[in-house]
Specification:
single chain; mainly alpha; Cytochrome Bc1 Complex, Chain D, domain 2; globular
């Protein structure tokens, strides 16, 4: 009996693994005005789970986070920045 080529075995194994692995739950931001803008801007660099998983921040905390993101290469207009900051501080506030 002839054995299949290794590449075929790898492809078939990967397909079975992918089919058997449940898809990761999609993280969504809380409902609110400008949610789509915030999702687009934040997810350009990282998963939205990083935003939602913060546990919230104060307005000053979110402002500092946006400063950090700008230092890491985020390109955002002053108007978009204000909108993102308003959204994050309103819908993902610091909770004790």
């Amino acid at each position: 009996m002839k054995t299949p080529p290794l590449s075929l075995v790898i492809i078939i194994s990967a397909a079975f693994t992918a089919l058997g692995t449940p898809a990761a739950a999609q993280v969504v931001l809380p409902n609110g005005p400008n949610r789509d803008l915030v999702a687009r801007i934040c997810s350009a660099c990282h998963d939205l789970g990083m935003v939602v998983g913060t546990g919230g921040r104060s307005r000053a905390g979110w402002n500092g986070t946006i400063d950090d993101m700008v230092q890491n290469g985020l390109s955002i207009s002053p108007e978009e920045r204000a909108t993102v900051l308003d959204y994050l501080s309103t819908y993902l506030p610091f909770r004790q």
